[in-house]
Amino acid sequence: MAAAAVVVVVVAAAVVVGTAVLTSHGGGSSDTESPIAQVEPFTLAPVIAGQPQATLAAVPGHPLVLAFFASWCAPCTEELPLIEKLYRSSTGGPNGAAAALTVVGVDELDQRPDGPDLVRSAGVTFPAGYDHDGSVGSKWHIDGLPITVFIAPDGRVVAYHRGQLSQHQLDGLVRRLAVASG
Q: Coil, strand, or helix at residue 22?
């Protein structure tokens, strides 16, 4: 009986720790060295049918912000409006002029209809693709959410941010991307 109680406590502790790591890396956020140096290209079907595909070329040709998110990730739901604001300010929105910066989103391992509901409620207009099987996330070494990657026009990864971004952090990383993009 005592052994069974210990097993239950150990399993419960593992679930709590695992959930904390997956959703927010322990509540913190950090700019870490990217686990990849160059872009891993992909094309994903849109989160919402009828919207543009989410595509990333090996050499994007312009500065790009890549945002990995999911509806079950509370920090993601708070961060997405900041990413949308960045997109709208740099492009004029979905029908704006030529982009100084591109944003692409990846809805990572989400359930239907949760992903589309999140994209709609956050007012996302940037291309957002659905990574239903985690294959894109695996190539990008996504081991928690949110993760935001800042990519130079030549495909170099300039910054790899784990955890929720504040407006101040996002602004600083966008400036760093601009400098790296020459």
A: helix
Q: What is the pTM of this model?
A: 0.81
CATH code of the region 28-180? 3.40.30.10
Strands 64-69 and 30-32: unpaired
Distance (Å, whole) CA 56 – CA 147? 16
Q: What is the pLDDT of residues 83-111, one digit of tens each?
A: 999 999 987 655 555 568 999 999 999 99
The pLDDT value given to residue 95: 58
**Identity at 137, one-letter amino acid code:** G
Question: How would DSSP label each residue in 98-165?
Answer: S-SSEEEEEEESPPTTHHHHHHHHTT--S-EEEETTSHHHHHTT--SS-EEEEE-TTSBEEEEEESPP
Does the pLDDT at position 18 exceed 80? no
CA distance 130 to 124: 14
Q: How far is 107 from 95, CA to CA, in rounded Å?
A: 22
Domain boundaries, the chain: 28-180
Between CA 80 and CA 70 the distance in angstroms is 10
Task: Kindly report whether the peptide bond that precedes residue 52 is cis, defined as omega within 30 degrees of 0.
Answer: no
Read off the tokens for 86. Answer: 């960045």
